[in-house]
Design goal:
The chain has 114 residues and is mainly alpha-helical. The chain has one domain: Orthogonal Bundle (c-terminal domain of poly(a) binding protein), CATH 1.10.1900.10. It has six helices and no strands.
Length: 114
């Protein structure tokens, strides 16, 4: 039991490091938005956080593909990055008022950094 849990934790850590390495080589605008999305989404994690890791993994693949096609990141997410995140988080956020504040902060942070 302990052995399988340790194997899973180490595997998850290795996968996370691999994802972070892939994100690090994205074009600058994608890295900025990916980092801001991570900060936003971690606020909605449940349990061990694997729910958010799965969403981030999908977004990373999407970003890599779009970057390879020469698209700007906001062509992928739209100007409302928070709404883009919310579509991927559907059902993960229990409080709309808190969500509204987080959405506003995310959009301000992305546009300030770009």
């Amino acid at each position: 039991m302990m052995s399988s849990m340790l194997t899973k934790l180490l595997g998850d850590k290795k996968e996370w490091k691999s994802m972070e390495a892939r994100a690090a080589v994205l074009p600058r605008d994608y890295r900025i938005v990916y980092d801001e999305i991570k900060k936003y989404m971690w606020r909605f994690t449940s349990g061990d956080g694997m729910d958010i890791v799965e969403i981030l993994k999908e977004l990373l693949v999407m970003f890599e593909s779009a970057a390879a096609q020469g698209k700007a990141v906001l062509e992928v997410t739209g100007d409302d990055v928070a709404a883009f995140c919310d579509e991927h988080l559907r059902g993960a956020h229990p409080h709309e008022s808190y969500l509204g504040k987080l959405r506003t902060t995310l959009n301000q942070d992305v546009h300030r950094r770009l």
